[in-house]
Amino acid sequence: MAVSTTSPTFGLSEYTNANFFSPDTIFSSDYPFPRWYAMQEWNEIIDPATGKKRTYLRKLGDGEMIDHAAAGTWFYKYLSVAKKSAGYGLKLDEKVYADYATKLLPRAVGYSAVLLDYFFRGTLNVTAAPGDVTFRSIKITATNNTPNEAMATGEVSLVIRYKELAETGSGPAKILNNPSADYIYKVATLKDVDLSSPRELTFDFSADPLPIYRNDMSMQLVFKGKLGNEDEAVAVSKPEAIDGVYTDFYLSLPPSGVYAKTDDSSTSATFDELRVTALSTIPGGLSGGTISLELNYRTAVGDQFQSVQVNTEPANAMGYVFRTPVTNGVSTLPQGVPVELVFDLRSIQLPVAATDVKIYVVYTNADGTQRIGYRDISEPTPVEVFNNTDRVCINNQWYISGSPEAIAAVGTDQFGEPNSDIFPHLIDDIYYKAGATGTVAYPLSATNNTLVLASLNPGEVKRLGYILTDYGFDYAIDEQVLTLDPNDHWYFEYTNDIYPGIGFANQRGKGFDSMYTIRGKKMWWGGSLIYDTNDIDGTQCTWESLP
Asked: What gap in Å lies between CA 18 and CA 15, rounded to an integer?
């Protein structure tokens, strides 16, 4: 086929000796060129110092336009149109490479991304219930989440990623330093797992248990097997954070009802002893080893019981860890039998300013292997009582108890006595008892209590001390109610009850509990009691409206 030699001239200075191949031109299949349309020759200065030019072919149609489709050699301009059309005298230079890279690389990346998306199109959903992540095993539920493709049998691996904490410092309490930037990985694999439907899977890490002290822990599930029509497909879940590693054996409140207590009501008080019940469900129990406590905590800077978030120490580190052996001679945890463990804290004197409190009981076998009991317990929880009987609520209004105004508001009988008990009262012999839900019972006494207060005057608030407990517990209070006003001829006692308690919480990343304010005084409402006079005539005044 003859090639057109029509050469329209463009009136632009950079175009010299421009030849234009008509869009109607189709090059012969004998030529090495593909089906090109509208190729244009043009000259470009390639060396500004000497003015040296090079002839390039510009592609103007039939798809992508490109300025440097090819470069001409020094003899290219002497060739006939037929030779040029056959591709003689052309080469590739840096400008051609650059133009092609600009056009092709984004597409190549896009194609490769699509290809990767295909090969890794399989997706999984993985969940773990609270308590199913232990130091030695992890139970998860795996679900195929790949759209429109069934998953069959394959190999499943659970990958655990975390940063381990380092210990520094001298003395009984070590500092747990923040981890390095490097991650540590642990992998457990199961063969021949059928994921055609959601499955519960348990991965064994007993040969290489998860660490006690770590940060930024997550898990990711990887499946390799049949997906749709492909036999060696790969499916991966997104990383799922692991908030806590749970227990190999169970820890709970001891028979005394609290892990620790102090009757020192000051903010500088400390706990000298910790008790906990351990229950092993491990077949055959645990024997022949030793038991120790590892106590992990931070400390508040300032009074944390003022409804104001305070800073905590240690700075630039995760917390403190304190280790101490069991002191009541226990070395065996029989299967299914609860055992009380006692630990002496006098060498560390855990402060009531402690935050982020977690306890670990470590059972170390003779061969050095360990089983670990873990529990996130409450922060030190203040126990307070408030005698509000110096005020009385009558017809939705607060009065000073025993005042003429209060007597006039309730009226008097034929003997001139007030028609209701509107007098202040002294509260004596206050016994406070805390314990696990469902275990607290009356009567309380000098031998059945957690904390004791001898006397509480009207208008007075007192802190009996502090307890370490669970975030949910029960408590009860018993007392003696005494008269103070000689005109008070009423007999009055409180109907005692068992109340649901809430342990005080102050943990990084989980929040800070606020105290309740009554008459300008701060109280922890989750484990305390306010003594009121009875509301008269069924009316109800709010504590917020107290003067």
From this structure: 6
